[in-house]
Design goal:
The protein is an alpha/beta fold. Helix content is 28%, strand content 29%. The longest helix has 15 residues. It starts with 29 loop residues before the first helix and ends with a strand.
Length: 272
Amino acid sequence: MEKGNKKGAKRAPPSTSTSNGGSTSWEHLAQWYDGWVGEEGSKHHRRLAIPTVLELLDLQPGEKVIDLGAGSGVLAPFVHATRAIYTGVDLSPSLLGYARRYHGSQGRFLAGDSRYLDRVIGPEGGSFDAGVFLLSIQDMNPLEEVLKSAAWALRTGGRLVILMTHPCFRVPRQSGWGWDEGRKLRFRRVDRYLTALAVPLKPYQGGKAGVSRSFHRPLEDYINGLGNCGLLVDCFREVPGYSLPQAKLDSKADQTAREEIPLFLGIRARKL
């Protein structure tokens, strides 16, 4: 994904560790992230990501929802509006502070690592009707541990919804837009795809706060990972974007690219 390159297309903060055991918490970027996303979420959250998540969740009153990598809790008011019961989990104390200040009356927010939900919610394993990764899973690692933990939290028949930048088209530092002058065509170039990558993105706050890290994985890793945890995929949503670099040659070509090349991928899986 080009999270560090495109304004607005920011993922929610991670809550797990890197492959070498280091934390991927966004505690060091919490102030910057809050300034970007704030109480209501970025325009990508509001226009694309959250509506897709709500469609896939299809929440009913009284259902229990766990939001993994909740960050500042932008999903909480939307879940609350359905009269479902919201729980957000994140590793960053500062982001949880923002979440409680903004949305504390609309759900509860717990500090913890999404790989170890049994340490966060204790005996409530198997009691959630739905789980959500809202633009957060590509900042989490290892994938297998995160998915296994999410599956543990769900009841039989419960569903897990993942909303992420589309891994087939948005590979950090390995994909981008191009222009075919002969065909007057805006195209998407992908230089690498099958190799899993841990990519440091650009520094924020002038480099003083450090960098974020994105974990690219091919789509098969997500589908097989869900299946290995007893989660059966039953719905896909490929969500086109609406923002490209400023058109310099042909606005019609840019519009076609926006409509045809997905920005986000939504996946819903149910626990067998």
